Amino acid sequence: MRRIVLILPSSTYRATDFVDAASELGAEVVVASDKEQALAGLMGDRALRVRLDDPEVAAAGIVERAERLPVDAVVAVDDLGVEAAALAATRLGLPHNPPEAVAATRDKARLRAVLAEAGIAQPAWQLAAPGDDVAEQAAAVGLPCVLKPRSLSMSRGVIRADTPAQARTAADRIRAILADAGASPDEALLVEEFVPGPEVALEGLLRGGGLEVLALFDKPDPLDGPYFEETLYVTPSRQSASAQREVDELVRAATKAVGLCEGPIHAEARLGARGPILLEVAARSIGGLCSRALRFGAGISLEEVILRHAAGLPLDDLSRADAASGVLMLPIPRAGRLVEVRGVDAARALPGVLDVRITIARGKRVRPLPEGDRYLGFVFARAADPAGVEDALRAAHERLEVVIDADPAPR
Question: DSSP class of residue 51?
Answer without folding.
Answer: -
